[in-house]
Each structure stands twice: as structure tokens, then as C-alpha cells.
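Case study.
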Amino acid sequence: MLSKNIFRKAEPYLFLTPAFAILLLFLIFPLFWNVYISLHDVSLVNLLQGWTYVGWQNFLDLFEDSNFQTSLKVTLEFVAGSVAMQFGIGLLISTLLSEKVRAGGVLLAIFIIPWTISAVIAAFSFKFMFDESFGILDYLFEKIGLPPVNWLSDPNIVIWSVVIANIWYGTPFTILFLTAGTLSINPTIYEAAVIDGASKFKSFLHITLPLLKPFIVINLILITMWSVNFFDLQLVMTGGGPMFASTTASLYMYRQAFEFGLLSKGASVGLILILINLVVAFIYVKLLRVR
Amino acid sequence: MQKKKVIDFNNETTTVKNTLFFTKRALIYAIIAIFLFLTLFPLVWVFSTSFKPNQEAIDFPPRLLPRNATLSNYVFVLTDPGLLRSLINSFVVSLGSTALSVVVSALGGYAFARFEFRGKNLIMSIILGLFMIPVVINIVPLYTMLSNVGMLNSPISLILTFQILIIPLNILLLKNYFETIPRELEEAALIDGCSRLGVLKRIIIPLSMPGFAIAAVLSFRFSWNEFVLPIVLTNRPDSAVFQVALYQFISINRIEWGYLTAGITIAIIPVLVLMLSFQKQMIKGLTVGAIRG
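After joint prediction, the assembly is written out as follows.
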């Protein structure tokens, strides 16, 4: 009887055990392991031998590395450009789709196609169009009388080319997310507003936006974090180059660890990325609370 | 006379209103049309290129339609032993990862949907909070962990690590779906002495097939498209997944764009077909998740 009682109490936790075991082993433990690696000297060469403790040395090296400083600046450009455009376009399109557009369902299905493909594919598609000897974009520029642009080889332009690809790739998520949010708003609220004589724009400003606010904030958190951590596009389109011109901090982490074999340097960048993520989440959550 | 004037006046405002209405609608459709074009153009361009011979693919000026349309690029991709191997690897890993995540998330989702237990809300927020932690920042520790236990290049490593991307979302989705099933259905079975696991298997799962379909499609999409984990956790050609095999085209001195675009088209097809067939349920499922979550 007693053992049956204990089982009753433990049962929900047993149901959750497999999920937690996986999360613990492959998400939480690595977070701490990351700290350990960042305080030691670990490279692809000495990976399977003893690791020496070096304290803060990896972080000190990092802050003296001008390439790392560049990568922070590039990250800021990449994140700001991607988030502003993805959110702006996403909000516009999802609002238009809620205007009883004909075949709205089909349109939505088409609009989310970029979200269903992989970043590698998006990256190659844009690399193909951006190519400087046979790409279609420079061809179109030539047609309308504009000078050709060195999309992927000009260090001042390259990150914005990646941002363009990221807008194409990432906006569908915002459209989908905000559309789901709009659908969750009770339509009788609008009917009441229309009866009260509110214009479309006013009802958008005073009804839709406030009710959408939680969705908007979560959406902004997600797309900001993804842009901070995302490096698939850069890796495939440019490899982070020319030199480090399109290397965001997350790609810098990957390149240090797996291109140059400096695992502990990569791990310390990983820790800094965690900090950046926390700050981003904190700011948005604060924004959510402010009325 | 008086009456007629009023009617005229009314007609006039209606016309003005109508014109305004139509201008607005036209503007909406114009924006949507532009966006539609921008969304589809890169894919149409790649699709069309996949039927051009490698040399024609990089012709300048470019032409939308292939001059010498050929299927040879597809034949190459589907007969090249390395690419074929990677395509099979992708299917194995994606199906394995989908199956595992659905089972694990069904158990977890059921616990949240039907049990009252200490720390329930806290555990739920922990799981959702974990969803926010990007997997990318763990690539270095995951690499050292798995290489220390000799599990680099193993499909099992990929299946297990992919779970991090999927499980939190699937638990939430399935929990919400289970909650729509009336409790009375399982209470009778419980009284008859059926175990909780038995109830889940015999009553909840058969009734939740639409929910499982969404969870499975999303899991497959995440697994099939994942690139960073495979490129970090595999380094032997025979254990590469298809996304990594496509990426390897870069290491060839000159990218053969005919072959590559055919490979891209092949990589798009499985997920696109799945997503389009389940599109309605997906939006509904996400909405339910949004309202309740």
C-alpha cells in the first residue's frame, strides 16, 4: 500500500525523466563544461591529453584580439539589420494577411516556404545570385544602369549581403508567429470597435497592437537571439570573409574552435555569447512589463 | 426634388468611399504581390538552374529558362556514392530523431497535461526557458564530450543532440493537445485497473494523432535541416548528412552549380511536401500553443 503511494507520487516525475535526462546531458552539463574548457588550454592537438589550467588567459587573449572586436561590431550590424527588417516586414505582411485577403491561406503557405528549407540552402541560393561574375543581381543592376556591386568580396558590403539573405530566410517565422497571434485575438472585439466607429488604423493601433504585445515581445526575443547565435548563412556564403569582415561573434567562435583548432578560445567566446543572450532576454522581458 | 438630392449626395460619397476602398485593396495586393515575387524568386531561380548543364548554369548574361534542359544533374546527385550515402544518413538520422522526440515528448506532455505534482509550473518554465538557450553556444563542449567517449561520427550522437532543438517545443505542443481530450475517457479505464502508461497508449495516443502529426513534421524539419551540429560532430565523409555534403561543394575548387542546385532541390522536397500537407494543422497547433502557452 505504502509503495503504491510512493509510486503515485513519483509517477509524473518518471514520465518526465527521459526528457530531463536528455536536456541535462546535452544542454545543461555542456554549459558548465564550457566554463571548464574556457579556463584551460584546450586545442584539437591536445584534446585527448591533459589540459593545463590557464585561468582568465583565454579571455584576456580574446579582448586583445582585434578580430574579435571586429566580430562584435559585425554582430551588432547583423543583428540590428536582421531584426529590424524581419520584424518590420513580418508585421506588415501578417497585418495585410489578416485583412481578409483572397486566398490568404494559400499565400501564407507560400510565404512560409523559406522557413521550411535549411540555412545551407538559403545561403547557397543567395551565394548564387550574389556571384560577381555570373550572378543575376549584378546583371539586373547592369540592366537598369547601376554599377555592379561586389556583394561578397567588398568588406564594407558583405555583411549586408548576408543580412539580405537572412531577411529572406528569417521573415517567414515572424509572419507565421504574428499571424498565429492575430488569429488568437477574439474577432468580437473588432466587431465592437467597428460598431463604435473606429477606423481600421485606429483599431490596429489600439486593439491589435496591445493584444499582440506578448507575441511581439516573444517574437523579438526569439529572432534577436537567433540572429546573435546564427552563423550557418555566413559560413556557407562567405566563410566569414573576406578576412573577418562577415565573421559575427558566433561564427568567430566556430572558426576559432574548428578552423584554427583553438577549442578553449572558442569556448570563451561561447560564454560571452551566453552573456549577450541573457542581456537581450532581460531587456525584452523588462520591455514586456512596461505598460 | 428634395429627396432626389439626398440620394445623389449619398451616391457620391459611396463612390468616393468605393474608390478609396479599391485603392487600399490595390495597395494591399500590390505589396503582397511584390513580397510573393521576392519569396519565390530565389527558389525558382535555383530550380530552373538545376536543369541546366554545369557550364550553362554560370552563363552570363543569365537566362531564366534552361536552353538545353537536362536531368543529368539529378542523375549525378542520385548516383554519386558519397551524396547518396549522405542522403541515406539524413533519412536515418531525421527519422530516428523524430521517433525519439515524439516518444519522449509524449511522456513529458502527458505528465503536464494530467498530473498534479509539486514543482509542476516551475518545471514547465524550466523546460520552456531551456528552449531559449541556443544550442550553438554548446558546440565546443559537445564536441569535446562526444570525442572523449568516441562518439563523433555516430548517427546516435546526432539523434540525441538534435533532441535539444525539438523536445521543449514538442512537449508544449503535445501537452496542449492532450488537454483537449476529455478526462472522463481515461478515468473509466483507470478505474478498471489500467495503468497510466496503458491509458496513454490505448486512449490518449490514438485520439491525438493530429497533434502527433504536427510534432512529427516539426521534428523532421528541424532534424533534416540542421547543419551546425552535424558539421561539428561529424568529420568523416561516410557519416556526413546531406546538408553537410552540400556544404562540401565549397571545398571543390570551382563550385559545379548545376549539380549543387539539383542537390538543393532534392534537399527541399521532403520537408516542403510534409509542411504543405500539414499546413492547416500546423497553424492551428501553433495557435493553440500560443493561446494557452
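Observations recorded in class. Chain A has a mean pLDDT of 89. Residues 18 and 150 of chain A are 51 Å apart (CA to CA). We will return to this complex in the next lecture.
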